[in-house]
Amino acid sequence: MPENKDFSAPLSLLALDTCTEFCSVALQYQGQVFAREADAPREHSQRLLPMVQEVLQEAGIALSQVDVIAYGRGPGSFTGIRICTSMTQGLALGQDLPVVGISTLAAMAQAAIEIKGATQVATAIDARMGEIYYGEYLSVDGLASLVGEEQVCAPEELLSQLAFDTPLAACGTGFDAYPALVTEVMTLVEEAKFPLARHMLPLAEAAVKAGQATDVDKLKPVYLRDTVTWKKLPGRE
Q1: Cα 36 from chain centroid (whole Å)
Q2: What angle do CA 153, 146, 1 make, to 5 degrees?
């Protein structure tokens, strides 16, 4: 990571996500947020970089003025995670910028917290092949905090774990794909169905200030399924 980086001052953060059907970019700069979002599941690789250029131009800054790049680390679509990871790698390498990975499940939970004031959130992404990616979060000082671990499991496995007795928000495509998961105490938050880069920003800022930013060489996508691995660009050790 570049030496003498001062992360105590207000941060300029660029966030990217292509891990699900939505492609999104957000830039936090001098107290303002500039964002672009598109429901374009087959166009992520074509859309992402132009969206990055648009938010940078709107803010009137160059990529070199960004302090950290936050990337959607997964879980989600294998192809989407790879696109997000490789794009982040390319942008960060070009400017020698540190990176920080943000969970897609946490980003959805953060949206429910910000939009609905949720204090407890269940998140589920349809993982295909009869499984879902699942995580539970609490709002701690306004930030989504993971309870337990993220997991990939069959819906019927999850049903045996769901024993909530207090109201909570639920978000994600997993609840659409498997409506039986929605219990009486859950309220679906449609606005948080997909992870969006704008909701990654507060999580990324907290992670950076907690010392979790790394060199791009330590970038780590999270697939949850053990059969998938990440390959770095040629020439990177």
Answers
A1: 15
A2: 110
Stretch (H or E) spanning 209: helix 197-209
What's the distance, Cα to Cα, between the start and end of the chain in Å?
Answer: 15
Q: How many CA atoms lie within 13 A of 207 on its CB side?
A: 24
DSSP assignments along 210-237, one per residue: TT--B-GGG-----SSTT----PPTT--
Q: Tell me, what's the pLDDT at 41?
A: 83
**Alpha carbon distance 121, 171 (integer Å):** 8
**Model confidence band, residue 228 (pLDDT cutoffs 50, 70, 90):** very low
42-46, 88-92, 114-118, 205-209: least confidently modelled range: 42-46
Say how many residues make up the chain.
Answer: 237
Q: How many CB atoms lie within 10 A of CB 126?
A: 21
Packing angle between helix 104-116 and helix 197-209, nearest 10 degrees? Answer: 110
Determine the average pLDDT of the residues in 60-68: 97
